[in-house]
C-alpha cells in the first residue's frame, strides 16, 4: 500500500506507554559519578519529556561542571547511559509499570494496515528499545523508522526524522496531514507544534488535561483506556476515518 492515506503514528514512551519510576534518575546518577568522578547533587526534573542529551547537559551544568568541559564530557555520558540502563533491565521489569490501556491501544493501532506506528521520544534509541523490550511492546511498533534523541537533541526535529525514514520504507510521503503524535507532556505538544504534526495529549503523566489543551494539543484524552476514542482522535487529527 503506497497511497497517502497511510497514517504515521508517533508514540511517546515515558509516562505515555510505561513508567519506570526512579530508574532513569538512578542511571543519570551512576553515569555522572563514573564520568565526573563525584556524586550528582541535583538531578534532571521528572516527566518533562526533554531529550536525554539536553538533560545530561543540564545535569552537568547544574552540578557545577564548567561549561568549557561540557563538550568533552557530554558525549562520554551519552555513550555510557545505555550501558548503565541495560544493567537495570531486571529493575525495569520489576519496578516499571505499563500505563492503563497502553497494550490495548498499541494492539489496535498495530492491527490497522493503514497505520504506521513508531516512536518519537526523548530517549536515546538504545534506551528506548530497552524499555520497550522490557515490557514486550517493541513488536507493536516499527522502531526502525522512529525518531530518537540519538538522532537530534532538538525534539521537534525528530518528527521530520521519522517522516523521512517512514517515507523511505513505506513509499509514502508523510506530512502534517498524515502524521500524529501521542504523548503526555508539554514537550510532546511542542514537538508537534514546531515539528509539524497534530498532537493527541494523554493526561497520564505530570501534565494535566487542561494544560495540554492550553499548550496546543489538538485532542486531549484522560488515558488510553478508551481505544475507540483514541482511534476517533487519530482520525479527527488526520482527517481520515476511524474504523
Task: Please write out the topology.
Elements: E1 7-11, E2 18-19, H1 23-36, H2 52-62, H3 70-86, H4 89-95, E3 97-98, H5 102-110, E4 115-119, H6 125-134, H7 157-170, E5 179-183, H8 186-195, E6 199-202, H9 209-215, E7 219-221, H10 227-238
Parallel strand pairs: 1-4, 1-5, 5-6, 6-7
Antiparallel strand pairs: 2-3
Helix pairs in contact: 1-3, 2-3, 7-8
Strand content: 5-15%
Distance between the termini: 18 Å
Question: What would CATH call the class of the largest domain?
Answer: Alpha Beta
CATH homologous superfamily assignment of the largest domain: HAD superfamily/HAD-like
The domain count comes to: 2
| Quaternary state of the chains | single chain
What level of helicity do the residues show? 40-55%
What's the architecture of the largest domain, going by CATH?
3-Layer(aba) Sandwich
Mean pLDDT: 94
Description:
With 243 residues, the protein is α/β, with parallel strands linked by helices. It has two domains: 7-20 and 96-238, HAD superfamily/HAD-like (Rossmann fold, 3-Layer(aba) Sandwich), CATH 3.40.50; 23-94. The chain contains ten helices and seven strands. The chain has a five-stranded parallel β-sheet, sandwiched between helices. A two-stranded antiparallel ribbon has the order 2-3. Helix 1 crosses helix 3, helix 2 crosses helix 3 and helix 7 (157-170) packs across helix 8 (186-195). The model has no long low-confidence stretch (mean pLDDT 94).
Amino acid at each position: 500500500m503506497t497511497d497517502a492515506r497511510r497514517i504515521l503514528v508517533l508514540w511517546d514512551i515515558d509516562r505515555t506507554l510505561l513508567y519506570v519510576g526512579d530508574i532513569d534518575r538512578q542511571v543519570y546518577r551512576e553515569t555522572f559519578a563514573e564520568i565526573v568522578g563525584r556524586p550528582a547533587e541535583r538531578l534532571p526534573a521528572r516527566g518533562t519529556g526533554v531529550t536525554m542529551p539536553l538533560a545530561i547537559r543540564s545535569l552537568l551544568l547544574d552540578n557545577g561542571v564548567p561549561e568549557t568541559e561540557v563538550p568533552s564530557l557530554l558525549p562520554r555520558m551519552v555513550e555510557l547511559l545505555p550501558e548503565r540502563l541495560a544493567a537495570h533491565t531486571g529493575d525495569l521489569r520489576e519496578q516499571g509499570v505499563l500505563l492503563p490501556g497502553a497494550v490495548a491501544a498499541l494492539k489496535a493501532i498495530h492491527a490497522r494496515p493503514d497505520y504506521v506506528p513508531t516512536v518519537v521520544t526523548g530517549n536515546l534509541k538504545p534506551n528506548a528499545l530497552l524499555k520497550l523490550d522490557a515490557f514486550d511492546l517493541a513488536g507493536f511498533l516499527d522502531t526502525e523508522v522512529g525518531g530518537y534523541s540519538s538522532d537530534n537533541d532538538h525534539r521537534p526535529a525528530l518528527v521530520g526524522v521519522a517522516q523521512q525514514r517512514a517515507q523511505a520504507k513505506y513509499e509514502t510521503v508523510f506530512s502534517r496531514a498524515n502524521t500524529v503524535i501521542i504523548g503526555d507532556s508539554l514537550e510532546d505538544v511542542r514537538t508537534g507544534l514546531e515539528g509539524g504534526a497534530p498532537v493527541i495529549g494523554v493526561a497520564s503523566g505530570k501534565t494535566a488535561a487542561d494544560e495540554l489543551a492550553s499548550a496546543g494539543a489538538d485532542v486531549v484524552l484522560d488515558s488510553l483506556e478508551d481505544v475507540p476514542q483514541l482511534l476517533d482522535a487519530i482520525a479527527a487529527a488526520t482527517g481520515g476515518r476511524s474504523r
